[in-house]
Amino acid sequence: MSSVTEVAVPTSDFDGNAPVNGSRDMASTFSESLYWRRSARRYELLGLVSWMLAALSCVVFLAILLAARNLLVPAVLLVPLACVMVLAGRWCDRNSRDAWDFAFWSLHAEVRQ
Length: 113
What we know:
3 helices; 2 strands; PrgI family protein; single chain; mainly alpha; transmembrane
């Protein structure tokens, strides 16, 4: 004979800051607005890193183009890398703005309750 028991295991969010109960029936003490604000900050940081890598790869490509023409063939690979980094930066910027909007509206909903 087997018995099934439910055990709530305390866990934490991915930042390790706010305790969240493992059971889905219990209300979380973790604010949805705080989640979206943290997500927006992460997207901003990731976007900044993407833009910086794109700029760096362009600068390295131009330096190789001007100084060492014998490395031109491997340096051409930096151009698609720069394009991908620009696309990643734009994607992160857009997601950051969306996350800030979600943070605002979820905070507004929390205040109304």
